[in-house]
Design goal:
2 copies of one chain form a homodimer. By secondary structure, chain A is α/β, with parallel strands linked by helices. In chain A, strands 2-10-9-8-5-3-4 form a 7-stranded mixed β-sheet. In chain A, strands 11-12-14 form a 3-stranded antiparallel β-sheet, with helices on one face. A two-stranded parallel sheet of chain A has the order 1-13. The first copy, chain A, is globular and about 60 Å long. Chain A has 9 helices and 14 strands. Chain A has 2 domains: 238 residues, Type I PLP-dependent aspartate aminotransferase-like (Major domain) (Aspartate Aminotransferase, domain 2); 100 residues, Aspartate Aminotransferase, domain 1 (Alpha-Beta Complex).
Chain lengths: 362, 362
């Protein structure tokens, strides 16, 4: 039996805004007296096209996407983009720079290596990903087709709190886990991509924001459904999009606007994560090894000084309604994901539990 | 203002079972006292793994999938499979047979041609897709890697009501629009694939059923997330699946079992479509050009003898709550999709309207 209220600290799919779920519930059988659930709508019909147009426009406003960037609603998740990005951007034989800041960078590099010569411009592997490598140490290739970063490392708890300068080489970011958590200077990027299941909506939906001049014919072997150019030129009508996920994402964008936009949400995210990191750093029972300046505001990765207590910590937390606090399997330990939808009360409940647990076990 | 009840005849995304939507609505904020919406569940967690396991098992039972076939829950829709199928099944330079029975066959051929030498074994183009070419006229290539059919043509209103014999060449079917509408002799196929947005669930989810011996390493350029082998070996854990769509599909599978399974639903589908085709054939106002033996039971494609009345027909139908009866844009005319979830009452309401419209306009 789990006590109520429940707070879901999963790294994604993870917590969604309650207001969004309530609205989705209310509209589930009949969207605005259309007589249809959004799941039942033909995607070329007026109703769904209205939903998709509104979602794209709200996202453009939220992020301040410049006019010379396209927003694509794709499918397959960020793991598919690890392949589709070089297939769409790089001719065969090209080189790309990748910066390795942890688990998800390595996945992107591994998959990208199947399509291009990858130059790992910098890596945090030698210090076990305790901090983001300073740009002064990056060995960039001036001939690279792009430079790829992972703006937030979900498994390792690191994030960029500064913007790299890659000169004329387009900067490309996997923003899956911090997209919409703070304002972004879009114009500093060539491509931004993000899987939806953190701060956007249901898993599978994949957002690609790309500068017009980078939309080129993809490699010949690229499935047309995954060609940025085909999708951009068809305005998402090449094949049936993830209609229901686009709808939910649209509700999330509206919710974000009601919260005051990305500036306001960033401030709240900063406050929530500061509270948690302060509690961790103020205790001898919990350890966060990441350098303070590079810590993720989305995924606080930490562990118990006595790792043998981890299972007991998770068991008791679950009993208290604090769910999914285990670390990524590749890393272990604990992880509290504090996405946009996590209320302050959830963070306070976690901290109270951590302090009580610490008191019981020291 | 649309009158109630509303019947949605869209070709997909289309009508879903009301009981499924009601259950989804009820569980939307909290799945079985887990404290989480299914959209919020980590996909490797016990809750979602239970949902996915159950869905796969129910589908296996419904279809009678033999033990030497795998069921994959993929992403991207059938249009993506037009590319991913040859990428996964054919080495470079291979040949494949395709039978052309209409709009969606042609799409599959067009995309498949980018990966293989395609032999169009038979085509209905010369008679404007009035019937499915008899197998006696197929020019099969004994060296083909597979023979591809489209078991139901959504835009043209044709379906196979017999099973081709392709000898040792694996038979592959795009079953997007009639999957789960009737029993299938799975063992006669090498691969079956289907996008979800007709009889399964939300758009994007893509089901691939493949015989074990056909699961080979994909071509080197295939994104790992779309490799049948990678997905089969990881049991769907390679990347985050379409969690919410898998859940809805699972509810649909349960609903189908409660309807008595595929034999019972096929009988109902036969009855519904017979009623509609009888009404069309019994009138001078409506014309269905497809040969009776090859007509689709999912998508009745017909037109008005006086095509100038089409817009007025659609307008009046909509007023009566009979939605989305326009034909596919590439074909024109009218189309009534009668998926599993369309109740008898919807078909009766459509026929009553058609008869009244005919009486008013002759």
């Amino acid at each position: 039996m789990i006590s109520s209220p429940v707070y879901n600290f999963a790294a994604g799919p993870g917590i969604m805004p309650r207001e969004v779920l309530l609205q989705a519930q209310q509209e589930l059988l009949d969207w605005r007296q259309s007589g249809m659930s959004v799941m039942e709508m033909p995607f070329t019909g007026e109703e769904f096209q209205t939903i998709m147009r509104q979602a794209r426009q709200d996202l453009r406003e939220l992020l301040g996407v410049p006019a010379d960037y396209r927003i694509l609603f794709l499918q397959g998740g960020a793991s598919a983009q690890f392949s589709l990005l070089p297939m769409n951007l790089l001719p065969p034989g090209a080189t790309a720079d990748y910066v390795d800041t942890g688990h998800w960078s390595r996945k992107a590099i591994e998959e990208g290596s199947r399509y291009a010569r990858i130059n790992v411009a910098a890596s945090g592997a030698d210090h076990n990903y305790r901090h983001v490598p300073a740009q002064a140490r990056w060995q960039l290739d001036p001939g690279a087709g792009y430079c790829h970063i992972t703006s937030n490392e979900t498994a390792d708890g690191l994030a960029y709190h500064w913007l790299p300068d890659t000169g004329n080489v387009p900067l490309v970011a996997d923003m899956t886990s911090d997209f919409l958590s703070r304002p972004i200077a879009i114009e500093r990027f060539g491509v931004i991509y993000a899987g939806a299941q953190k701060n956007i909506g249901p898993a599978g939906l994949t957002i690609v924001i790309i500068r017009d001049d980078l939309i080129q014919p993809a490699r010949p072997e690229t499935p047309s459904a995954f060609s940025y150019r085909v999708q951009a030129e068809s305005e998402g009508r090449f094949n049936t999009p993830l209609t229901y996920a686009v709808y939910i994402a649209g509700l999330v964008f509206r919710w974000l606007k009601r919260q005051g936009g990305l500036g306001a949400i960033a401030e709240r995210n900063r406050r929530k994560s500061d509270r948690l990191y302060d509690a961790i750093d103020g205790s001898d029972v919990y350890v966060c090894p990441q350098r303070a300046a590079d810590r993720s505001r989305m995924n606080a990765c930490f562990h118990l000084a006595d790792a043998s207590l981890t299972t007991e910590f998770l068991r008791q937390a679950r009993q208290q309604g604090l769910l999914n606090l285990q670390g990524h399997p590749a890393v272990g330990g604990l992880r509290a994901s504090l996405y946009n939808a996590m209320p302050d009360a959830g963070v306070e409940a976690l901290i109270a539990f951590m302090q009580a647990f610490a008191a019981r076990h020291t």
